[in-house]
Amino acid sequence: MVEHMAMFPVNTLKIRMQMFGTTSTASSSAHRHNTGKVFTSIMRKEGPLGFYCGIGAIGLGAVVFVFAGAVIGVGGGVGAGAGIGMNASGPKKL
User: Fold this and answer.
1) Which residue range is the domain that position 8 belongs to?
2) Which end of the chain is more exposed for a tag (fewer CB within 10 A), N or C?
3) Using alpha carbons only, what angle is made at residue 70 by residues 80 and 92, rounded to the nearest 5 degrees?
4) What digits encode the pLDDT tens for the residues 25-40?
5) Angstrom distance (rounded) from CA 88 to CA 94
6) What's the gap between Cα 45 and its chain centre?
């Protein structure tokens, strides 16, 4: 979860660049959006918190993942797979 939250601003830049699209012709280079232009645009229009717009969904997804893991015993939930270990031949009751 920490990795997702730390990389969220970079992902925001990537998504905004994908939304704007890029062109490959030299005549339309004025409409080309590079990382610097998109970064500046976000900072100017939304401020530093603009890079974290929508981060609540990441937190909510992590909570659901941990809860589901704890309830059904899979994933990264607290207590996931309690009492079950793995060895070379497959699952093994501990």
Assistant:
1) 1-23+30-54
2) C
3) 25
4) 544 555 566 888 899 9
5) 14
6) 22
Looking at the chain, the whole-number percentage of residues with pLDDT higher than 90 is 23
Same domain, residue pair 41 and 62: no
Q: How many domains, the chain?
A: 2
The mean of the pLDDT values for the chain is: 74
Q: Is the same domain home to 34 and 16?
A: yes
CB-count burial class (<10 Å; 0-12, 13-18, 19+) for 12: buried
Q: Are residues 2 and 35 in the same domain?
A: yes
CA 83 to mean position of chain CA atoms = 31
The token pair that represents 55 in the structure block: 């981060």
The residues near 81 (Cβ < 8 Å, ≥ 6 apart) are 73, 74
Statement to judge: residues 44 and 12 lie in one domain: yes
pLDDT score of 80? 45
